[in-house]
UniProtKB/TrEMBL annotation:
Keywords: Chaperone, Cytoplasm, Isomerase, Rotamase. InterPro entries: PPIase_dom_sf (IPR046357), PPIase_FKBP_dom (IPR001179). Its EC number is 5.2.1.8. It is an enzyme of class 5 (isomerase). This is Peptidyl-prolyl cis-trans isomerase. The lineage of its organism: Bacteria, Pseudomonadati, Pseudomonadota, Gammaproteobacteria, Aeromonadales. It catalyses: [protein]-peptidylproline (omega=180) = [protein]-peptidylproline (omega=0). GO terms for biological process: protein refolding. It holds the Pfam family FKBP_C. Also involved in hydrogenase metallocenter assembly, probably by participating in the nickel insertion step. This function in hydrogenase biosynthesis requires chaperone activity and the presence of the metal-binding domain, but not PPIase activity. One of its GO terms (molecular function) is peptidyl-prolyl cis-trans isomerase activity. Its main location: cytoplasm.
Amino acid sequence: MQVADNTVVQFNYTLKSEEGDTLDTNVGNTPLAYLHGHKGMLEGIEAALTGKNEGDSFSITLAPEDAYGERKDEMIQRVPVKHLHGAKNWKAGMMATVHTEQGERQVTVAKVGKFMADIDMNHPLAGLTLIFDLEVVSVREATEEEIAHGHAHGEGGHHH
């Protein structure tokens, strides 16, 4: 079966930097599952998977604007340390959670003082050209419930 809208796709990936360094992979673990055509995946990956078949393996390169966007300097903000959640002692490079008007958000601590911290609200992969090695493990028709919920259920997908 071919990858098309309203199919559930399970795939393995290895994410690499432009320099070839592995940044993340799920190879050796449960394949990632998503509902194709429902904006549950990076657009560039979804476009590359369209029309592929079970067993296909290939690589794609995504520019920042097709992946996690360009880095924006205005996304670095100064906040009171007491607003950082997830640890007691903060150091630059650590991930924290902050409460915003849009809900909880994961941020990177850029610099920390006694009372204030500079946090980077850019996605950690923003500004990077990324290489994805993809392997389509399985493709199946989505159930009516998955289509109604807008995501894949079961192994590698969402569990209710």
